[in-house]
Amino acid sequence: MNPALKIGSLVLALCLCAVSAQAGARPVRVVSMNLCTDILALELAAPGTVKSVFRVAADPHDSPVADLARAIPLNDASAEEILSYKPDLVLAHRYSSPFTLDILRRAHVPVLQIADAATFDDIRANVRRIAAALGREKEGEAWLAAFNGTLAKAYRPGGTHPPRAVIYQDLGGAAAAHTILGALLEHTGFENVVKAEASGEFVNLTIEQLIDLRPQFVAIGVYRENEPSLAHALLDHPALHTYIARYARTADLPARLWTCGTPFVAEVAERLAAARDAFDAPAPPRTN
Amino acid sequence: MRAPRDLLINLGLAALVALLFLASVYVGRGGELLTGKLAALDATDRQLARLILEEVRLPRALLGLLVGGTLGLTGAALQGLLRNPLAEPGLIGASSGAALGAVLVFYFGLATATLVPLGGVAGAFAALGILYLLAGRNPSIATIILAGVAISAFASALTSLALSLAASPYAVYEIIFWLLGAFTDRSMQQVWLVLPFILVGGVLVATSARGLDALTLGEDTAASLGFNQTSLKLRVILGTGLAVGASVSVTGVIGFVGLVVPHLMRPFFGHEPGRLLLPSALAGAALVLAADLLVRLPVDGPEPKLGVVTSLIGAPFFLWLILRTRREAD
Amino acid sequence: MRLLLEGLHASLGGARVLRGLSLDMAGPSFVGLIGPNGAGKTTLVRAVANLIPFEGRIEFGGVSVAALPPAERGRRIAYLAQNADSHWPLSVERLVALGRLPHLQPFRAPAAADAAAIARAMKSADVARFAARDVLALSSGERARVLLARALAVEAPLLLVDEPVASLDPYHQIGVMEVLRAYAREGRMVVAVLHDLSLAARYCDRLVLIDNGRLHAEGTPAEVLTRENLRAVYRVGADIGGEGATFHVTPTSRTE
Predict the structure, then answer these.
(1) B257 φ/ψ sector (left φ>0, alpha ψ -120 to 50, else beta)
(2) What would the pLDDT profile of C15-68 be if each residue is shown by its tens digit?
(3) Which chain B residues are Cβ-neighbours of A79 within 8 angstroms?
(4) What CATH number does residue C204 fall under?
(5) Which residues of chain C does B272 touch, with a Cβ-Cβ cutoff of 8 Å?
(6) What structural domains and CATH numbers belong to chain B?
(7) Quick one: which H or E segment has residue B104?
(8) Is residue C88 within 8 angstroms of chain B, CB to CB?
(9) Who has the most CB within 10 Å: A57, A105, B28, B255?
């Protein structure tokens, strides 16, 4: 086939996408190929318009909307599967396979890619983008209002000596300040002991480093608690156990609430706020 | 002369490749047939079926053919050139270089369906350039192997570094999955991108057949038979680098095919390197197409990665081969 | 048919091995190239085969060997390396067939002439009996004859062989020398590097004695293998006797 012709058809496809987006027709055959967009799509879309979601969306360990996903066909994020739903909108992640996205674009399918949310504003922007693409702005604003309300209720001022806290998680590492978990710690009146401006979202902290930082609060991001992993084994380390038992409070934060930056992180804020309140209660934690 | 017998086996292999190619186009996830899909679609959807056929299945099958053929051909050629039955296309560092180049594109968040293969090709060229600088104009076989191993190790280390420093866990998963090797969702655009490199590389390697035969008797004798050793090495290594580098840059690393396929063909064709080139290319294509069909068979869950499957089949086979060789030696 | 060397200089790993060697030999002939270890025999044949860089002039049949296109040189000059061996377990016939590589046309199958040359070479070297056997499964004596057959199959007017009988028993030594002599009798030139002076004397038409990278003596065996030459070049005293087929040289003592 003639490459010039190919490029031509690609340009045409892009124009067509732009036109259909401007026309503002509500998509009725939405396919999502990534957990983070699955969650937003299932919460926001009109019933019956989401034709397929990524297979992980139906797993209650990973997905806060597993119950909603159960009735919907699951896909494996391959172009052929997605195309067979004849979608008029595909929701993808910034890191979805570029090859798959390329085929979808060539097939004149509008694709909306969203990036990871690192701040509450990122979450709001992602929700608004998806809501706009689905023609469900009202639902989007309603959801955000609830999100803002829960967040506001979970707000705790840090004060002069905020409790020193760390979020340690099952997949390895501690949450850095510029992540959604870091933002949640600050929002609920804790001081994140992980200061490093690492490029990654999680800073690899050895147990010795963790203890050296003297956190008063150790939140554990729990992911598939009963399945063995090296990262999980680290959380079972006797030193960490003893430290938490003697010197710190702890709380469990289920991974399904925070692996994707969605309004569901407000539930994490609630849990953290409850833990923060315990620090103001009269009896400090002691060894048992 | 055994020429008619060779021709017959080669034709048989070609028929097998054609059959697997058709199967690759017509069989989908869970063994579902495209004919069934076509029949189930009404007139408006025939366009969709054509789209899947032309933009998803066809490029995938074409890449299986091209990449499998490349791996088989270059594997046989390198085993002949280096006179070592353990040589494989990854040995000269071009595939590690291509993998690194592509991973860097992912790492810097620039991943598009064009930039990833271009990064891979650039990486393969960089690796070949360094090999040339390290090994010099007429390197000994040992120098080529040592320099290739060093470049591969260095490129792999940089790939691991990129992985450990990657910004997002999603980027890490994308890189890992890409490295495992797959043909899923590649399009004609990538086929056009790699085709010239694979063709030029393939021709460079294939036309070295007689020189590789002559190398059976060592470099001096081969030179005395009229084969310039410098140009022979340059042709085979440059050709392998171009073809394998381009393949890896589109499909990721697909292990064991280049190593195993020549061994599969030797019982039928003997050990002459030149004579093994065509059957190895055909058998490589057949093996990769078959493995790519195999990964589609599970109905549910993630598709197993092709590179993993070829290694899963290749490694035990190789062990069996070693055991058999040892038994024969005893 | 004339092999002409003029002012030949060549180095091996930085050390000068050939130092201005000149030689002029004509006609179909079986030439024995003799001299002590390190004299430059192997370097000389490798230079003639154009396998190493050299200074000076090497002409065969009136043409400079360095100026010949590689394939043409491959057709005119065959070379059998010292300790030659096969890296792959080919059948004897396939291995001998490699000698026809310089004659093949690009993208063409071997012609009938090639098959005939392969058959002749296998017959001369007496390996036709095990044509289908794996060459690596043969005894070293048999394998040496197969590798020799490969060099014969080129049917080049000049055949260079480097120590063809070094590791063979007397039966196979005599066999190889007879094959080489017969090949030369067909109107070609054979240059063989030899250490066994008696064998060289009995089979070769002419001997070339080199020492320290230069020509020391050239002529018939009786002219070259004198007590004086052996003392000067090999630093040995020797018992020389017999004539023709019984000519023998037996080194008896070292002289300093």
Answers:
(1) alpha
(2) 899 999 999 999 899 999 999 998 999 999 999 999 999 999 999 999 999 999
(3) 55-56, 184-185
(4) 3.40.50.300
(5) 88, 90, 94
(6) 3-329 (1.10.3470.10)
(7) helix B94-107
(8) yes
(9) A57
